[in-house]
Amino acid sequence: MVDLVIPPELRPVDGRFGSGPSKIRPAQLDYLVATGQSVLGTSHRQAPVKRLVAEIRERLAVFFDLPQGYEVILGMGGSTTFWDVAAFSLVRERAAHAVFGEFTAKFAAATGGAPWLREPLVVEAPAGSVALLGPAEVDVYATAHNETSTGAASPIQRPAANGLFVVDATSAAAGMAIDVAETDVYYFAPQKALASDGGLWIALMSPAALERTAEIAASDRYIPASLSLQTAVDNSRLEQTLNTPALATLALLLDQLRWLDALGGLTGAAARTAESSGRLYAWADASPYAEPFVSEPGLRSPVVGTIDFGEQVDAKALAAALRANGIVDTEPYRKLGRNQLRIGMYPAVDPDDVSALTACIDYAVERL
């Protein structure tokens, strides 16, 4: 039983620090209520929802400054679904995977389990660091911009001239700077920096990726319709998805994109997460009992901060005490098994709330 009471004046205004699903701004819910009657419970193939999808695609293209010929593609499911989509529709024969945490490993497992593909090349690094890919005899290179499980952020630069470069941006997109031209597929789900609900995947695709998709779709490979990237491309060009999407997810996503644009676009969003994470890491570096899990400063994520604690601190009890005081979702990724907290610092999170969180941690540690 946690009975520690943190003084209200120390607590964050908003105590949500989840790494996904993440904080949804109250104004988004107001927007959902105000606009919901015109789209919720209506056909996703009619004009009101098509306009919603069209504005999302247009705003994403501008937000990420897409190069000529790149397209914004939407499909049903999240990033987990997209790994299967990629195994069916993007990899010709063999993929190379940078594995440095749980989610990069899951994509490697998806292509590794596909009986029509050769065994993938896996370049692995320990949790808390980053694996980098080099030229290889493969046709897809895959990595993550940010490994959500560990808080390690990878530099994004094409590893080779041959092959498509496919980047999981689920926890990075809209919170970290990116030159999309360095990638062929920059894919993500909207429940993190884009502050929406799950249920969709979004991919920013290059002309080469679109061509590969069409090539494989025209081959004799069996591809289920729900996992066909070409089907998602065809439907996205019609401003819709194959099956009925969660319309509330789309509405929340659109309102967040409008807010991010007012914040200064991707530049403003990245500056805000850098401010939040800078405060967290500065506090941890100065703390006598805490330190950033990612030891190399240049690889520390600006959107997901993992903080290790010395043996004198029980991080599980600390997270419970914070939760009892309305500060939630600071628990570490379960499979890491470390004595740590994991802090989501997406653009919707106020940097001042991150500072308040560190003050609450100090208060709780002193008394637990």
TrEMBL record:
Q: Which part of the chain is the Aminotransferase class V domain?
A: 138-328
Answer yes or no on keyword Cytoplasm. Answer: yes
Identify which top EC class this enzyme belongs to: transferase
Could you list this entry's UniProt keywords, alphabetically sorted: Amino-acid biosynthesis, Aminotransferase, Cytoplasm, Pyridoxal phosphate, Pyridoxine biosynthesis, Serine biosynthesis, Transferase
**Top-level taxon in the UniProt lineage:** Bacteria
- Enzyme Commission (EC) number: 2.6.1.52
**Known catalytic reactions:** 4-(phosphooxy)-L-threonine + 2-oxoglutarate = (R)-3-hydroxy-2-oxo-4-phosphooxybutanoate + L-glutamate; O-phospho-L-serine + 2-oxoglutarate = 3-phosphooxypyruvate + L-glutamate
Q: Which cofactor does it need?
A: pyridoxal 5'-phosphate
| InterPro entries per UniProt | Aminotrans_V_dom (IPR000192), Pser_aminoTfrase (IPR022278), Pser_aminoTfrase_mycobac (IPR006272), PyrdxlP-dep_Trfase (IPR015424), PyrdxlP-dep_Trfase_major (IPR015421), PyrdxlP-dep_Trfase_small (IPR015422)
Q: Name one GO molecular function term.
A: O-phospho-L-serine:2-oxoglutarate aminotransferase activity
Q: Does the keyword Transferase apply?
A: yes
Listed pathway(s): Amino-acid biosynthesis; L-serine biosynthesis; L-serine from 3-phospho-D-glycerate: step 2/3
**Which residues span the membrane?**
none
Question: PANTHER family per the record?
Answer: ALANINE--GLYOXYLATE AMINOTRANSFERASE, AMINOTRANSFERASE CLASS V
Q: Of which family is this protein a member? A: Belongs to the class-V pyridoxal-phosphate-dependent aminotransferase family. SerC subfamily.
Job of this protein? Catalyzes the reversible conversion of 3-phosphohydroxypyruvate to phosphoserine and of 3-hydroxy-2-oxo-4-phosphonooxybutanoate to phosphohydroxythreonine.
List the protein's name: phosphoserine transaminase
Q: Which organism is it from?
A: Branchiibius cervicis
Taxonomic lineage is:
Bacteria, Bacillati, Actinomycetota, Actinomycetes, Micrococcales
Gene name linked to the record: serC
